[in-house]
Amino acid sequence: MICGMWTTIAIVLIILGLLLVNAIGVLMVAFQLPGTWLILIATGTAAWLRWDDVGGWGHLGWWVIGILFFLAILGEIIEFVAGALGAGKAGASKRAMVGAVFGGVAGAILGTIFLWFIPIIGTLIGAAVGAGVGSFLGDLWAGREIKNALEGGKGAAIGRFWGALGKIIVAGIMWLVVLIGVLI
Fold first, then answer.
1. Helix (H, G, I), strand (E, B) or coil at 93
2. 156 touches 134 (CB < 8 A)
3. Exposure string for 142-173, b = 16+ CB within 10 A, e = fewer
4. Where are the transmembrane segments (predicted)?
5. Residue among 55, 147, 142 at smallest CA distance from 99
């Protein structure tokens, strides 16, 4: 009787720990860190350890890992391509689109550092501004006029913001997939 109770407690703690680690992964994505990969690795480790042999919550199957892998890749594509597509849609050059990608990464880092007093929002603002500046500079380097370069930069900033928001949504969906996988 006591052994069964401790097994149940251990299983509940493992599940809660996995869900907590994955929630931290979602928060990491909001800070422009690779939280989707943390979610995938943590859940993959849990599935690999096969805790279902311990006490019976083994519905966290490999189908969950497959879905998480697909979503992690989708999140990366959404995040990094959105700024470039926003710039491209505004008529920016290829150099501007590359600048939007690199500027978005640099801006996210700088936004986190210098706008630390507004967590998450500061990172998102930094990523968007960085993508815009990177696109603007790329267009100037390509020889475009300032007015056109500003339009491309605006498109890149808007695209990067929506891309970052999209990746946060993907990370939230990943958390829900794990929750469903644990509960089924």
1. coil
2. yes
3. bebeeebbbbbbbbbbbbbbbbbbbbbebbeb
4. 6-28, 35-51, 63-85, 97-118, 124-143, 164-183
5. 142
CB under 8 Å to 61, separation ≥6 — which residues?
Answer: 47, 181
Query: At residue 160, what is the residue type?
Result: R
Interior angle at CA 37, CA 120 and CA 83, nearest 5? 55
Tokens found for residue 150 = 């500003």
Residue located via tokens 């706008």: 115
Position with higher pLDDT, 90 vs 40:
40
32 conformational bin, left if phi > 0, alpha if psi -120 to 50, beta if neither = left
Instruction: Say if residue 53's pLDDT is above 80.
Output: no
d(CA 135, CA 101): 8
pLDDT value of position 31:
87
Tally DSSP H helices, then E strands, for the chain.
7, 0
- Are 112 and 183 in contact, with CB atoms under 8 Å apart? no
Q: What percent of the chain has pLDDT over 90?
A: 54
Residues whose CB is less than 8 angstroms from the CB of residue 95 and which lie 6 or more positions away in sequence, other chains included: 138, 139, 141, 142
Q: What is the pLDDT of residues 15-46, one digit of tens each?
A: 899 999 999 999 999 888 899 999 999 998 88
